[in-house]
Amino acid sequence: MKKFIKVLIGIILVCGMLFLYFSKNSLSELFFGSSKKTTLVNKKTIKIRDGIRGVAQPNPFIVTEDEINRNLLGNSNNNLVGQLIYTRKHELPEAQQKLLANNKDTTQYILGYLTGERIPFEYGETAELKRKYPYYIQWDRRWAYDELGDIDVAIGGCGPTSVAMAIGGLLNDKTITPRKIAEIENKNGYFTSHGTSWNFFDFIAKEYGLKSNQVSLSKEDIDKVLKRGNPIIMSVKPGKFTTVGHIILVVAKDKDDNYIINDPNSYTRTLKIWSYDELKTEIVAMWEFSK
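== Peptidase C39-like domain-containing protein ==
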């Protein structure tokens, strides 16, 4: 009888969590508070989707199976959503488990992956940072589950997401989204086993009547591009941004000679101000997009 009662309580808890998930209120409000957040960087109220908060991320990254399991188990303590995810962890590919372990801002994407729930598509930034170039996150649920090669945009979409931010800002066109750019990349075979092919940048720039020029790794050349008001697609190696290669967008400089970036995989790193010394050890290659 006691065993039956425990099972019944477990079923009730799971049903309750699923009810909350599918209710009209967003998970960001139910579990994380309001979807608007005041940051020290912007000192404004920012409208943000998908319960994203800019959480602290582990340093160094969590990479081994044991580390990932311990992290997700720890996240299930006194956390109903964490408990639900942990009980279904076996349904998540390794990449999704690793993503969540390193960034709890991805929780709503992971829940959608497990439940199959999708949200209606609409235009708009992932977070309205009031920058010249829009800010999109690759695991934004509007396109996170879209196919990109043999994975999805959430896992491999840093390239098309960075391109969407660059071109969307240059043309002031909110219809240029990661979904649209990823579709073009897929259709034309520019996504490889190593991620977005660098040749895609020239191709997609021409598709939109723009120019793509490779930039040297020097601070002087980076500053010249930003002074012209143009964005820089930056390919970085494993290190401060991810455990694999990654693509980000450099969008501006501040008054203290630091750099402002749009990281499609991390709202936290997007809010951070970066010095050249911090970036120079990560850079592999860069491209200026211009009219």
